[in-house]
Design a protein that fits this description.
397 residues; alpha/beta; Aspartate Aminotransferase, domain 2; Aspartate Aminotransferase, domain 1; 2 domains; seven-stranded mixed beta sheet; three-stranded antiparallel beta sheet; 15 helices; 12 strands; globular
Length: 397
């Protein structure tokens, strides 16, 4: 296989003329910060989820949305929040923003999602909430997690950064019975606003608090004040809030991206299906699939080297088999990444909670063997075949 082809990135957004026109319209409108398009985007997002009674709150990142949700449910010093070690640090760091502590648990090795049995075993008198992560776009076992939360009187906030559109028990993530779900619109997600996110909740009190805290703890947001037909300059600061609002420029992108979300997901699913078929005879553990009748957003396509693959790839103390495999793919012009370096290996989390790899055997084993292949809607069939050929070549197949 030739490496002279242009480098294929791990991820790339698909931006069309519609998004460009919507952003230009925003720039010409004179309203570029949070305004009418952010409100439209919130309304359209609720409609996309199929429930216009949902409160959808546009924010400048999923991290911001998780922070707002935890603040609104009253998480604070002395509390504990359970989440998975197999995630990006944002899932856990928002707990520390509020002075609470994190309890990390291992994953189910089949799904790479948080293990409900381990969640229940980690509950202490200090536990106040659970944050499951829908890893890679495959929904966590929400019926089991919701049942645990109910039994123990805990709040449940979904980290749905990967999960648009994913489903659990026949319902879209965002419409389940959790206290809130938070989506990401970062550049590599199913839809993008550049940076951005959406907090979704049925809880009116939670939504009201999050809206106030989203913009400095002001009793009225800027759009309401500046568009009122009567003088409305007066506002009150009711809490020390944050600067977490999504701009209309970002929302303009989101408005048009959301119209394409179904197509984007379908293309990702088609790429995943091609990978499944192409790698079936290789010494790999392919990405976990959704149960029959459920939707997988396919934000990620992680593969794991099986024992035979590890043995077949020359390795050394300096470069284990997974790392050498990634190097081979890069040499063939294929971008890839690793999701994730688990939190128990990160210096801050490891040292604060005296975490050991042996405490998280499934996440540790997955990390040592895994890498994520390119999967995004703008990939052509030729791009997909380049990835397939590179993987097979790198394994000597």
């Amino acid at each position: 296989m030739s490496s002279s082809s242009p480098f294929l990135p791990f991820a790339a957004p698909e931006i069309g003329d519609e998004e460009i026109a919507e952003v230009v319209d925003t720039l010409k409108s004179g309203w570029v910060t949070t305004g009418p398009k952010a409100k439209r985007f919130e309304d359209d997002f609720a409609a996309f989820l199929g429930d216009t009674s949902l409160h959808c709150i546009a924010v400048n990142s999923a991290t911001a949305g998780l922070h707002l949700a935890l603040e609104a449910i009253g998480i604070g010093p002395g509390d504990e929040v359970i989440t998975t070690t197999h995630t990006f640090t944002a899932t856990a760091e928002v707990v520390r923003y509020l002075g609470a502590d994190v309890r990390l648990v291992d994953i189910d090795p089949a799904t790479l999602n948080i293990d409900p049995a381990l969640v229940e075993g980690a509950i202490t008198p200090r536990t106040k909430a659970i944050i499951p992560v829908h890893y890679g776009g495959l929904a966590a076992d929400m019926p089991a997690l919701l049942a645990i939360a109910r039994r123990h009187g805990l709040k449940l906030i979904e980290d749905a950064a990967h999960a648009l559109p994913s489903s659990s028990a026949g319902r879209l993530v965002g419409t389940l019975d959790s206290d809130a779900a938070v989506f990401s619109f970062y550049a590599n997600k199913t839809i993008t606003t550049g940076e951005g996110g959406m907090l979704v909740t049925r809880d009116e009190a939670l939504a009201k608090r999050a809206k106030v805290m989203r913009l400095h703890g002001m009793s009225r947001d800027a759009f309401d004040r500046f568009t009122a037909k009567v003088p409305s300059w007066y506002y009150e600061i009711v809490a020390p809030g944050f600067k977490y609002n999504l701009t209309d420029i970002g929302a303009a992108l989101g408005l048009q991206q959301l119209k394409k979300a179904e197509r984007f997901q379908q293309r990702r699913a088609a790429i995943a299906a091609r990978y499944h078929a192409a790698f079936a005879d290789l010494p790999l553990v392919t990405a976990p699939v959704a149960p029959e009748g459920e939707r997988h957003a396919w934000h990620l396509y992680p593969i794991r080297l099986a024992d035979a693959a590890v043995a077949a790839i020359e390795s050394s103390a300096e470069a284990p088999a997974r790392d050498r495999f990634i190097e081979r793919l890069f040499a063939l012009g294929i971008g890839c990444s690793v999701h994730y370096i688990p939190l128990h290996l990160q210096p801050y989390w490891r040292d604060r909670y005296q975490l050991k790899a042996a405490d998280f055997p499934h996440s540790q084993h997955a990390y040592e063997r895994m890498l994520s292949l390119p999967i995004y809607s703008g990939m052509g069939d030729g791009d997909v075949e380049r990835v397939v050929a590179a993987v097979r070549s790198s394994l000597g197949a």
